[in-house]
Amino acid sequence: MKVLVFEYSTVIFEDNLISEGLNMLKSLLSDLDGIKEYDVTYLLNKNLKIDIYPHSNVIYIDCDLCEWLYNNCSNYDCCIFIAPEDDLIQYNITCILEKNDVFLIGPTSNASYICSSKYKTYMEVPSNIRKIPSFKIDVSMTDYDYINKHIDLKDSIIKPDDKTSSNLIYHIHNTEELKKIITTYEEHSIKTAIIQQYIVGTPISISAICNNKYIKCISINSQEITESKNQIKYMGCKTPIEHPLKERIIDISKDIIKSINGLYGFIGIDYIISKNEIYFVEINSRITTPYIVLHNIVNVNLTQTIIELLLADKKREITINNNGTFYK
């Protein structure tokens, strides 16, 4: 079986995501390299060199990724890729692969489209899931008077509606701070944003794998967050962690995954735990940072397990043998 593998930032050479992206790509390739049933090809930017995977083929890209996929992806049976939800990047790549009948080791275009917007995701997830009070704004037409009438800006979070990176998330306290962030967003061509109530609590995530009838929550992970000059950044994770609300978190995660048709493969869901309340934050419909740790500490070949789950509905018992950390 011919398997195509790539990670978006290591193809387009996007500096702000390259650390996580490169490590996630290496995790996939180290799992797949040498499996006899798989003829693995991976894509890489021509200016980037990584470890040698002797049983895998590398193609160095010097053109637009989508253009290359349009012309070449039909040569492969299946594809496992990592790409951000930003500006519908993951969705558009998924559409190209679907149109060329390449089997996706990941979500469908429908699920990718929903998860590309934090607000769309909130609207899709069932009302019995506790969500953070949120308000969507059009950045270029921000009505500050209207916002002040409907939102308490004394303690709020503002974030782009469709961006993966945490580099543009801010903790704001008044209209003047909001205006500065709106200017920053306009400079970055951000069109829509979400203003949310700031919830004091502990940020965590879960990592799960699933197909259309099976969901396995593998781990609960810490989210190592820093805040400096109102800017909030994700710096890494500890995987796994124990949590007293584990069973509730798993049950909620399963309900969320079931609520979005086509959410397959490896899924990350972010939460904030405040006292005994579990607040849903967002879904990452792709392989996320904890994968870098997990693939080394589980009892199975994690990438092969995901491929077999989606291709053949084959389920393997997954146990975690250790713990680990990843920091940018």
Describe the protein.
32% of the residues lie in helices and 30% in strands. The strands form three sheets. Strands 6, 7, 8, 9, 12, 13 and 16 form a seven-stranded antiparallel sheet that branches. A five-stranded parallel sheet has the order 3-2-1-4-5, with helices on both faces. By secondary structure, it is of the alpha+beta class. The chain has helices at 8-12, 18-32, 65-72, 89-99, 109-115, 118-124, 144-150, 175-187, 246-259, 290-297, 302-312; strands at 2-7, 39-45, 57-61, 78-82, 103-104, 134-138, 156-160, 169-172, 192-197, 202-210, 215-222, 224-228, 231-239, 265-274, 277-284, 324-327. It is globular. α2 (18-32) packs parallel to α10 (290-297) and α4 (89-99) runs antiparallel to α5 (109-115).
Low-confidence segments, given as residue ranges, are none
State the end-to-end distance. 34 Å
Number of strands: 16
**Coarse shape:** globular
Count of individual helical segments: 11
Q: How confident overall, as mean pLDDT?
A: 94
Helix content: 25-40%
Structural class: alpha+beta
Order of helices and strands: EHHEEHEHEHHEHEEHEEEEEHEEHHE
Fraction in beta strands = 25-35%
Largest sheet: 7 strands, antiparallel
Radius of gyration: 20 Å
